[in-house]
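User: Continuing from earlier, I have the next pair ready.

Assistant: Great, send them over.

User: Here they are, in order.

Assistant: Folding the first of the pair now:
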Amino acid sequence: MTSSVYVSRINQIDAAELDLEIYNVLKNQTKEITKYTPPGMIDKWQAEVDVILKFLIWKFSLHHGSSTFGQRLLNLQYANISEKKAVLYLILTVLPHYLKDKLSTVSSSDHVIVQKLKVFVDWTANVIGLIEIVNLLVFLHRGIQPRVIELILGLNTRSITTHRPRIIGYSYMTRELLWHGLMELFTVGLPMINFHYLKHVVTKLWRRKPTIRRSYPVLDASTKCVYCGENPILPSHAGCEHIFCYYCLRAHFTAMRAFSCPGCNVELHTEDMKRYTIASTFSSDDEESDDSFVKVDDG
């Protein structure tokens, strides 16, 4: 079967990304296998584990063929790969990352030569990063050798099949669009719905008319917030006989200026909201007397 000369840029970029994803999947699997080992036991050998994984990927891809796993998935291969270039590919892929990972654990008290080597490796990594950016811009213009390692070894990519169109699946895109639409609904639409008002309208349908309205509710140790049923935090009221937590009552008045009390169905208004504080009175002989509750306005 003859191979076609032209290879689309997106296929070459996808092949490189697939190679990285395959490596990350294997790395995550090794972490899952060793997650029950004592903490720190595997972490100190993580650089060596990464080398073994990259060697195994190379062993069963470029060492036995002319394409990486990512290229095989997209029907691509290197046109001018050789055994020598394959070995150099492994060395250039493994050695720089291994040195950087090992030297990153070097402390400031280590030997001066090791410190200089660490600085050199970091500087080299920065230079390589800059070269990768420049090479990516050149690749977008020329359409060949998207990675620096391919540029160094002179590797060119070709397609195994001839005149085979790129098949694009839109099912993933459809799921993403649906998911983002639901996220926008939940994060933007739902907070705009006035649930307090809806609850007030529904409960008002079967509640009887209010009885006598009390302006001075009683607050004692057994008093519970009529809305949440817990001990009232910053006790507040708005004109009926029931006590609310400050934030329970304020949340209702933030949603609407008037609503019916959940306990007695008395209509409460935001301008009637008041706070309670506990005041202690003492007798003339400095003996502590019983606590009394005093109504205090917000103002």
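And the other member of the pair:
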Amino acid sequence: MKPIVLMTDSKPYKDERVEIIHLPFIKIAPLAVQTIRPQYDWLIFTSKNAVDVFFNQYKTTHFSKIAAIGIKTSNYLEQLGIKVDFVPTQFNQECFIEEMGDRFNQCTVCLPVSRKARPKLYNALKKDSTVDRIDIYEPVPNDENINKAKALILNQQIDWLTFLSPSSVTAFGNEILTNRVSVIAIGHVTSKALKDYEIHHYVSEQETKQSIIDTIIKIETERKGE
């Protein structure tokens, strides 16, 4: 039988190697529109949610170039017909900072993010750039889906519970019941949130959904002794 995997992020995903149940743990609540510059040298997007909210609320803002953290965000922008000028080789703030070089120096930069976004990237950019961090949305728990997920775990109807952001970990809390389900995080930032709750978990080798499934299949194969 295929492993049954509960995906908890906002975007549906398919992989024929597993059976996926999709229950987003987080809803996006857009925040009030702020007064920002009419023109920027760079826009930097850290998620597809930020892309959606920004282009819906700041339609008249002009920009010269765009950077994205993550191939999914980059691909989404290109699907919208928007050219992406810089993407790091790994999909996190640390790699972005390491690889950005001096391309943002002396530039005006708009950084539209979640209200709960880590400040690391903003702090690195502002050393040599004029950066406007705009909190454009905040994640709020989807209590209905979280309760459904807890029922599935209690009834042992899923094999794997995935977490793709620290916000989803916080929303779910520490009632993971790891003796009934295996838990996996996408990357070290989400892993740290799980460690804070002292929840045993695995970590995907790369910060992508495909890597989550790859890691699950690898672990399942090892468990079966194949």
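Worth noting for the second one:
Residues 6 and 126 are 38 Å apart (CA to CA). The longest helix spans residues 209-224.
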